[in-house]
Amino acid sequence: MDTIKPIKVGSTKSDLKEELTAAEMAKLWATYMGNSMAKCIIKYYLQHVEDEDIKALLENALKLSSEFLKTTEEIFKKEDFPIPKGFSEQEDVNLGAPRLFKDEYYVHYLKYAAKAGMSIYNVAIPLVYRRDVEEFFIYCMDSTMDLMKQIKEILMNKGLIIKPPIIPVPDKVEFVKHQFLNGFFGDVRPLHALEITHLYDNIENNVTSKALIMAFSQVVKSEKIRNLFLKGKDFTHKHVENYMAKLHKEDLPTPSFLDHLVTKSTFSPFSDKIMLYHKADMFSMKIRAYGNSAAVDGRHDIGLMYTKSLMTIAQFVEEAAKIMIENGWMEQPPFAVDRNLLANDN
């Protein structure tokens, strides 16, 4: 196969003198906040990990987070953009806290975190135009993909996960009939490959999310936040059961819960701030995942299931945001000029 030939365009527009666009600011800001949080979490994980392969994986992930933070900060400084406060080892993590998770959980967590990072980077790449920013996000994407390969190798080699279900290769090309959309009544067809894929992915994400929020609910200091975490744990469990039921009905395997990978510790390694931000961020990612799932779904029953999940998660994220605002924890992303305010000032 011939390689794609480069296109030479006589333009000097993409240079470092260009101002950052809203898209570039937004994705750089989100990258900084996410990796600022990840750096604290992974540093704690490294205090207790015993498996040498998993330790090397965590070290690679920490190295990437540190690199991404450094580069983002350098771009911000060029533009006199205020460096976000984010999260710090001094305020948001206690590296001396007892073990809260078993080694196996760290691999599942890193897979979830890598997915979250890639969702930022792959959306950013088509939207950014300044050369240094574009090259940075391409590097972020490539590096995270390399990390994902290592994560999957460890998951499979150590028997920590099952692959997505196997289904038969089609005998021929066919076109759907009118009952294709049925889900509650009439002739309900089997799940198609895209529906199976997203059910599997949502189960994988949610079992990781449930274990994390369960651990956080054990150690969080605020009673208000604990109650929110327990609420999130309960509906996450129900969501997983619903998704599993769809696959089990077709005699297809599913990933398992990871609750047993959380220890009995009630001593918090993290600040309430970072834990609440982390769970709000994870649930926000689920909103995007469910939207992607609904977009390729064809059955009414599955579409309704995702709609109900979206509503529940959106409510959680709103409640979490209110608590963060009350405590002065929510940093404001870059925003547009309020022209009405300027007019009133005159």
Describe the structure.
By secondary structure, this protein is mainly α. The chain folds into 2 domains: 22-157, Ferritin (Up-down Bundle); 180-326, Up-down Bundle (Ferritin). The protein contains 10 helices and no strands. Helix 2 (52-78) runs parallel beside helix 4 and helix 4 (103-124) packs antiparallel against helix 5. The longest helix has 27 residues, at 52-78. The radius of gyration is 22 Å and the shape is globular. The termini are far apart. Residues 6-13 have low confidence and may be disordered.
Task: Please render the helix and strand layout as text.
Blueprint: H1 22-45, H2 52-78, H3 89-92, H4 103-124, H5 131-157, H6 193-219, H7 223-249, H8 272-296, H9 300-326, H10 339-345
Helix pairs in contact: 1-2, 1-4, 2-4, 2-5, 4-5, 4-6, 6-7, 6-8, 7-9, 8-9
Q: Classify the beta-strand content into a percent band.
A: under 5%
Instruction: Specify the overall morphology.
Output: globular
Number of domains: 2
Radius of gyration: 22 Å
Mean pLDDT: 91
**SSE string:** HHHHHHHHHH
Helical/strand content category: mainly alpha
Q: What distance separates the N and C termini?
A: 63 Å
CATH superfamily name of the largest domain?
A: Ferritin, core subunit, four-helix bundle
Runs in which pLDDT lies below 50 for 5 or more consecutive residues are 6-13
